[in-house]
What does this fold into?
Amino acid sequence: MTPEELLAARDRLVPDVVAGGLRVLFCGINPGLMSAATGHHFARPGNRFWPVLHLSGFTPRQLKPAEQDELLSHGLGITNVVARASARADEIGDAEFREGGRILTEKVELLRPKWLAVVGITAYRTAFGERKASVGPQERMIGETRVWALPNPSGLNAHWTVQTMAEEYARLRAASQASG
It folds into this structure.
């Protein structure tokens, strides 16, 4: 992918991978340029979402971003707090995050997953006005949907290793299986 192709992907949308009644709907912050250019979530090499999803037991093998539609067969889906692509998450302002939280709430009310897993604690705090939230299950519910804040799998989030992220994601997997 050339730098020009990546820059041309700015502000593009990446289609959600969703269905009604999912076990877990994962929610990224917003698509990066690589994701927007390819049309696949968490597409940047070095993003740890796909390895962590597998290591935590959500998928029987490590999927590639281009195989994202296979998530549906596992009762999983992907969306984003903010739909438009940017080079960095810090290009998204608080107002856009709050509006994304409102839109996400409507989406969750429509799709009714058992769990919404927001992948990025800072994005969760801003989108839902929960400044003191920490990683893990949240008190907030959206209708009947429980909410879990997960660490961001970006390679920039270096204080979470693949192993410690996989352990946190596995806690969500266990909770999602226990809840039916």
About this structure: The chain has six helices and five strands. The chain has a mean pLDDT of 94. Strands lie at 24-28, 76-80, 115-119, 136-142, 145-150.
